[in-house]
Specification:
Layout lengths: L19 H23 L4 E5 L9 H6 L9 E5 L3 E3 L2 E3 L9 E5 L6 E3 L2 E3 L6 E4 L8 E4 L8 E3 L7 E3 L1 E5 L9 E3 L11 E3 L2 E4 L8 E5 L11 E3 L2 E3 L4 E5 L8 E3 L2 E3 L10 E6 L9 E3 L2 E2 L11 E3 L5 E7 L8 E4 L2 E7 L7 E8 L1 E5 L2 E7 L5 E6 L2 E4 L2 E3 L3 E5 L3 E4 L3 E3 L2 E4 L3 E4 L3 E3 L2 E4 L3 E4 L3 E3 L2 E4 L3 E4 L5 E3 L2 E16 L3 E23 L4 E3 L5 E10 L14 E5 L9 E7 L9 E12 L7 E8 L11 E6 L7 E4 L2 E4 L5 E9 L4 E10 L2 E11 L2 E11 L2 E9 L6 E7 L9 E7 L6 E11 L6 E10 L5 E5 L2 E2 L3 E6 L6 E6 L5 E7 L6 E3 L6 E9 L2 E9 L1
Parallel strand pairs: 1-2, 2-5, 3-6, 4-7, 5-8, 6-9, 7-10, 8-11, 9-12, 10-13, 11-14, 12-15, 13-16, 14-17, 15-18, 16-19, 17-20, 18-21, 19-22, 20-23, 21-24, 22-26, 23-27, 24-28, 25-28, 26-29, 27-30, 28-31, 29-32, 30-33, 32-35, 33-36, 34-37, 35-38, 36-39, 37-40, 38-41, 39-42, 40-43, 41-44, ...
Antiparallel strand pairs: 50-52, 51-54, 52-53, 53-59, 54-58, 55-56, 55-59, 57-58, 60-61, 61-64, 62-63, 62-65, 65-66, 67-69, 69-72, 70-71, 70-73, 73-74
Length: about 850
């Protein structure tokens, strides 16, 4: 009915203008009224609908939902009053952030919904809550093995299931207790399952998967949040995310464990996150996998089967901006007890790009042959500093594994494919085995375990000094500034490529295997000791792997057979026939050392010329380890290729020993032609001779018992200082107490202070002098004189024994050349005086008056 009110028409003149503050006051009042009106609308109480028996508005949840409009015009709350509902519930109501729909138990009620609860087509901003004042007061239960319990499907969006118990028995590998399923066009986006328990409905009927996500229809399921839940008791997978799922997934702070009475024997995985190559911006963090209770506690999760167990496996996109992060997760208290080749893998990256940090593996074991893999990388894996603990394995099979920090291996690291980059240090106390792929290291290498690279390459690319582990390398590449220094002997199977920087061997050796080659430049080279073995053939140039020595045996030459070459660089041979050598020489040993006929080529780097002109280079040969040298001339010489190298050739070489290139014009201060050490009784007689001397002050004579640490025992002044004729010298070491090995060397000093030059060493062996013991007079009163000498001992024990062998007196003394007075206190009688020194006992009969 329409009502019309009478009205009177009035005519007004112009209203008077109001002051500005009056106009602004009314504008402020109008604004405040508008705000109050909006606040009243927003705080309008939700419409309460009750469901249950008795006085409830509706008897079923489906009936209550039918009475609610869609889209929602205001907030609604459905309260469950009964203890049990047996129905499948479909949510198709569309709400907003303001107009929401909440379904929850009434205060004091703990209902069970027996059936499947679905957030379906049109559902948006709907919350299923189990909080009625206490947490998890609502249970969803589905006993059928053919159906899920909780479903998000057909473009469900912004829906939440919170603080509920979700129990199911779905046995299909392509289903789960909770299913995030097919979309219609946009996918199921921004849905949440939080603070809930997802587990088995029946003790004897475990589900295959607890949470299963797959979308074969429209759109992609984006931004699903699975947080703060407990997921337990399943036969296959705790969380399985497969194709059709998209960006922004968050799986965090969940506990995945197993405490059912039946011990599992099937393959099990905690989190299998494999949405596909287009899915990025995933966060898998702070999840605990293992044990029998939340937080991977309560005992050990035992799997007695013969199939693999996996903690977290990632297979997703490769974005470097929308990164996929796996951080702070724990795999703990898991034991695979089957006797098979099954592996226990804590973390695996199968595809895409994933950043891993702060994850831990502890309390895990596998009685099978494949052990415990802390990490298996088959894609792009970015790690922070990472440790492989003792008893665990890390496997790199494909892709690129980047360690942004230090990699510490105390277990087993198998590099079977793909590449590795370590930006920090690589510390290996376990076993490292590389069978394919490259490993690039920018920090130091420290190896106290086993280091083997049977294929692939190790790259040293740090900008600065690096230490380099000894071990077995297939390929070694140096491509970083500074000096890289070996910490142990290294053997190369295939090749060493020097691109930038220097590789120093220090006191160790770099050995080239039978097929290995060395590539160097004048700016990047190996400094120190390189060893190689080859077998030259007639008419064929043998280059010994590129170490700078080449042999060409004549067609009718006797062949040297197996030839072992040691190259030393960085050190100029001393006394090369009275000439100065380049910073390189070769020691050559072979099955046949004489009767040869071959051309010998020595190649060098320009910085090794040591100030010598190419035109002045000559071959020098030493047959006594560099003590004396013979000028062998040169057949040809010149600059080499590439630039920065040179060579010299000598034809008709008939024997081997030590070879170098020296300067024909610049003599050394002393040209030593002989140095000899011989024994004469307990003395060492040293003799030497010089061919020439220049500014020579004399010779220091030094001795060592270990060949490493020398001390000076004498000095012989030069006879002339400057001389072009032969000079002869002699020194006798008559010091007492010489025993065992003694090494003698000469140190030549110039009159002008500068670098000393060393010759030798020469080795002698001295037998230790026999100990002596005497006491007199043999019949004594109070004083007894003891003469006791020993070549090395510093203490001795004197004892007086009676006729029954009992000790009646004892005194500690020091053996020495001078006799000592002692006053044994004992009754008169016959005794045996013993002296025990260095484990040896000497005796003498004495009588005390």
């Amino acid at each position: 009915m329409k009502h019309s009110l009478p009205s009177t028409t009035h005519s007004f003149g112009p209203l008077p203008a109001l002051p500005w503050w009056e106009r602004r006051r009314w504008q402020v009042v109008a604004l405040l009224l508008t705000v109050l009106l909006l606040l009243g609308i927003r705080t309008q109480a939700a419409v309460i609908i009750t469901v249950g028996n008795g006085q409830a508005d509706y008897s079923t949840i489906t009936q209550a939902l039918a009475a609610i409009p869609s889209p929602l015009t205001q907030a609604y709350e459905v309260q469950l009053l009964s203890g049990s509902y047996s129905e499948n519930v479909l949510i198709n109501k569309t709400g907003t952030a303001t107009n929401t729909l909440t379904i929850k138990p009434a205060t004091g009620v703990t209902p069970i919904i027996n059936g499947t609860f679905t957030f379906g087509a049109g559902s948006a901003y709907v919350t299923l809550s189990g909080n009625n004042g206490s947490t998890r007061a609502l249970t969803l239960r589905q006993n059928s093995q053919l159906a899920p319990t909780l479903v998000f499907s057909d473009d469900a969006t912004h829906n939440t299931a919170s603080e509920i118990l979700v129990r199911g028995a779905a046995s299909s590998f392509t289903s789960g207790v909770v299913v995030i399923g097919d979309g219609a066009s946009a996918g199921n986006d921004y849905n949440t399952l939080t603070q809930s328990w997802v587990y088995n409905a029946n003790p004897s009927q475990l589900p295959a998967n607890l949470v299963y996500a797959a979308n074969a229809a429209g759109g992609a399921n984006d931004a699903f949040t699975l947080t703060r839940n407990e997921l337990f008791n399943f036969t296959r997978t705790g969380v399985l995310v497969s194709g059709g799922n998209g960006d922004g997934w968050n799986i965090s702070n969940n506990s995945i464990y197993y405490n059912a009475s039946a011990t599992p024997t099937s393959a099990q995985t905690g989190i299998d996150f494999g949405p596909g190559s287009g899915a990025n911006d995933a966060l898998v963090s702070n999840n605990a996998i293992g044990g029998q209770a939340a937080g991977a506690t309560g005992g050990t999760w035992v799997n007695a089967g013969t199939q693999n167990f996996r903690g977290i496996v990632m297979s997703c996109g490769s974005s470097t901006s929308l990164t996929n992060e796996v951080m702070g997760n724990t795999v703990s208290n898991v034991s695979l007890t089957g006797t098979s080749s099954a592996a226990l893998t804590a973390f695996g990256v199968d595809a895409g790009r994933n950043e891993l940090s702060g994850n831990t593996v502890s309390g895990v074991s596998n009685t099978g042959t494949s052990g415990v893999n802390s990490l298996v990388s088959r894609a792009t894996t970015v790690l922070g500093s990472f440790t492989v603990s003792s008893g665990q394995l890390m496997v790199v099979e494909n892709g690129l594994t980047v360690v942004q920090g230090n990699l510490t291996n105390a277990g087993i690291l198998n590099h079977t494919g793909g590449d590795m980059l370590i930006t920090g240090n690589f510390v290996n106390s376990g076993t490292f085995a590389q069978t394919l792929g490259d490993i690039e290291i920018k920090g130091n290498m420290t190896n106290t375990g086993q280091f083997t690279c049977s294929t692939g390459k190790v790259k040293l690319t740090g900008n600065g000094p690096q230490t380099v582990s000894g071990g077995l390398y297939f390929n070694l590449e140096v491509n970083g500034t500074g000096t890289k220094t070996l910490t142990n002997n290294a053997t190369i199977y295939n090749g060493v490529q020097m691109l930038a920087g220097v590789l120093a061997t220090g006191r160790y050796a770099l050995t080239l295997d039978r097929l290995a080659n060395l590539s160097e430049t004048d700016a990047s080279y190996v400094l120190g000791r390189v060893e190689v073995n080859r077998t030259p053939s007639a008419g064929t140039v043998e280059d010994f792997g590129g170490v700078g020595l080449e042999m060409l045996p004549a067609a009718n030459s006797t062949l040297p057979g197996s030839t072992f070459v040691t190259r030393i660089t960085g050190t100029a041979p001393v006394g090369a026939g009275g000439r100065q050598g380049i910073l390189r020489y070769f020691d050559i040993d072979a099955d046949v050392l004489t009767g040869l006929d071959l051309a010998l080529t020595l190649r060098y780097l320009d910085h090794e010329l040591n100030g010598i002109s190419r035109a002045n280079l000559r071959f020098f040969k030493s047959s006594n380890g560099g003590v004396t040298w013979v000028n062998k001339g040169v057949s040809s010489a010149g600059a080499g290729s590439p630039a920065g190298t040179g060579y010299a050739v000598l034809d008709r070489v008939d024997g081997f020993s030590r070879w170098t290139l020296g300067d024909i014009n610049a003599p050394l201060p002393v040209g030593l032609t002989a140095f000899q050490a011989v024994r004469e009784g307990q003395n060492a007689v040293l003799t030497w001779a010089t061919a020439t001397e220049q500014d020579n002050r004399g010779f220091g004579i030094e001795v060592s018992t270990d060949g490493q640490n020398f001390r000076e025992i004498g000095f012989v002044a030069a006879e002339a200082g400057n001389s072009s004729t032969a000079r002869h010298y002699r020194f006798v070491d008559a010091s007492a107490g010489k025993a065992g090995l003694r090494y003698y060397r000469l140190r030549q000093d110039d009159r002008t202070p500068g670098e000393a030059h060393y010759f030798g060493p020469q080795k002698l062996v001295f037998e230790a002098a026999a100990p002596t013991f005497a006491a007199y007079p043999t019949q004594f009163g109070s004083d007894l004189t003891v003469a006791l000498a020993h070549p090395t001992a510093t203490t001795a024990t004197l004892r007086l024994l009676d006729g029954l062998g009992r000790e009646v007196w004892r005194q500690e003394v020091a053996p020495g050349a001078a006799p000592q007075q002692v006053q044994p206190v004992a009754p008169a009688g016959a005794y045996t005086l013993t002296a025990t020194v260095a484990g040896q006992v000497m005796r003498q009969r004495v009588v005390k008056n």
